[in-house]
């Protein structure tokens, strides 16, 4: 999906329950290797199947920074260029996001508030991945990404 | 003492160290924040936000110039794997042999039992200052917040939580970070001596 970065979301327009457009990340060996090289987490559990299995994981799996980056992209595409990241809470990785799966980042507006001149928004964000037993299950989060958005007027 | 109690008892010294700052030395990131590294960081994410590529767009949005993604603070704080003059990292050719040293491996903790593996479980951030092209990051402190021994499907070990700060070259706090690490011995492995 092409993002129109000229569009800016404003705090005044956001309502609790609004949903973020989901963003999908298919995980191939190729992509995990590029990710490890780009974010410098070269722990072999993230690019070597045999090593990952010996560590107790079912397969090589996406590293923390890569998964964080997925959240950042999904949130940034929602908040626009003038939105700012304030904090991330509850980024808990409850299961491995392994090669051969597709990770989908989803989210919704959990609440909005004012802090002086800032318009803050709490976004509930989570990642889902394919699962052998279910069609999809939560693998990261749900957590809270707090952002500030510009205000009208 | 049963076998079950025995492995848990090995973690007691670390449990008693909750509150201690294990970050004796500041850890300096290997690379200055550069536009090329930001581009590479965004590549596998297919993350095309102009703030990370386009200086004019970043300035129009209120930044001083191209800004690094907030999630890249971990990457920019990783020290070098190897520097000129260092001993070799790769000395054997076994398919799965590991380098002699790793900049991302948790530091040896004197009061923790030896373990064969680790992985991150969770992470939290407070973002306080923009990370801009030209900045360098230094990781300061490493306070143990909690330690809970637990057996999981991958092995026996402990869930630990740590807090530290990322500071830029001016000493400004770019991010405050709290992270969970599971340190463990895999079920099929023998605990290292």
Write a structural description.
The complex is a heterodimer of chains A (153) and B (193). Chain A has 153 residues and is α+β, with helices and mostly antiparallel strands. Chain A has one domain: Roll (Thiol Ester Dehydrase, Chain A). Helix content of chain A is 22%, strand content 37%. Chain A has three helices and five strands. In chain A, a hairpin with a 2-residue loop joins strand 3 and strand 4. The two termini of chain A are 31 Å apart. The model of chain A has no long low-confidence stretch (mean pLDDT 94). In chain B, a hairpin with a 3-residue loop joins strand 3 and strand 4. Chain B has a single domain, classed as Hotdog Thioesterase (Thiol Ester Dehydrase, Chain A, Roll). Chain B is globular. The mean pLDDT of chain B is 92. Chain B has a five-stranded antiparallel β-sheet with strand order 1-3-4-5-2, with no helix packed on it. The longest helix of chain B has 8 residues. Chain B contains five helices and five strands, in the order ααβαααββββ. Chain B starts with a helix and ends in a 7-residue tail after the last strand. The chains are: A alpha+beta (153), B alpha+beta (193). At the A-B interface, helix 1, helix 2, helix 3 and strand 2 of A face helix 3, strand 2 and strand 5 of B. Strand 2 of chain A pairs antiparallel with strand 2 of chain B, so a sheet runs across the interface.
Secondary structure blueprint with pairings:
The complex is a heterodimer of chains A (153) and B (193).
Chain A: E1 19-26, H1 29-39, H2 49-54, H3 64-79, E2 84-92, E3 102-115, E4 118-129, E5 137-149
Antiparallel strand pairs in A: 1-3, 2-5, 3-4, 4-5
Chain B: H1 3-9, H2 12-15, E1 27-28, H3 35-42, H4 55-60, H5 73-76, E2 117-127, E3 138-151, E4 155-167, E5 173-186
Antiparallel strand pairs in B: 1-3, 2-5, 3-4, 4-5
């Amino acid at each position: 999906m092409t993002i129109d970065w000229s569009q800016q979301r404003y705090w005044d327009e956001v309502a609790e329950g609004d949903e973020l457009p989901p963003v999908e990340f298919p995980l191939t060996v190729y992509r995990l290797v590029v990710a490890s090289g780009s974010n410098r987490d070269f722990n072999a559990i993230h690019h070597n199947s045999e090593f990952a299995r010996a560590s107790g994981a079912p397969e090589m799996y996406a590293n923390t920074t890569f998964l964080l980056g997925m959240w950042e992209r999904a949130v940034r595409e929602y908040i626009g260029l003038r939105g700012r990241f304030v904090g991330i809470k509850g980024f808990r990785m409850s299961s491995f996001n392994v090669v051969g799966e597709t990770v989908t980042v989803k989210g919704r507006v959990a609440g909005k508030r004012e802090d002086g001149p800032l318009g803050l928004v709490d976004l509930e964000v989570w990642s889902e991945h394919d699962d052998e037993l279910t069609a999809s299950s939560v693998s990261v989060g749900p957590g809270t990404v707090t952002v500030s958005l510009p205000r009208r007027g | 003492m049963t076998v079950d109690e025995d492995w848990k008892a090995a973690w007691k010294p670390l449990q008693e160290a909750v509150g201690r700052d294990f970050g004796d030395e500041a850890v300096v990131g290997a690379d200055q924040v550069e536009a090329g590294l930001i581009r590479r960081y965004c590549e596998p994410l297919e993350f095309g936000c102009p703030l990370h590529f386009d200086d004019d767009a970043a300035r129009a949005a209120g930044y001083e110039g191209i800004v690094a993604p907030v999630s890249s603070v971990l990457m920019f704080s990783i020290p070098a794997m190897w520097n000129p003059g260092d001993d070799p990292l790769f000395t054997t050719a076994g398919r799965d042999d590991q380098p002699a040293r790793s900049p991302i491996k948790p530091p040896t903790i004197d009061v923790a039992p030896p373990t064969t593996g680790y992985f991150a479980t969770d992470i939290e951030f407070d973002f306080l200052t923009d990370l801009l092209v030209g900045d360098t990051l230094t990781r300061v402190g490493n306070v143990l917040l909690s330690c809970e021994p637990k057996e999981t499907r991958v092995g026996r070990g402990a869930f630990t939580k740590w807090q530290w700060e990322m500071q830029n070259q001016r000493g400004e706090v770019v991010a405050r970070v709290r992270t969970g690490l599971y340190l463990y011995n895999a079920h099929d492995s023998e605990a290292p001596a």
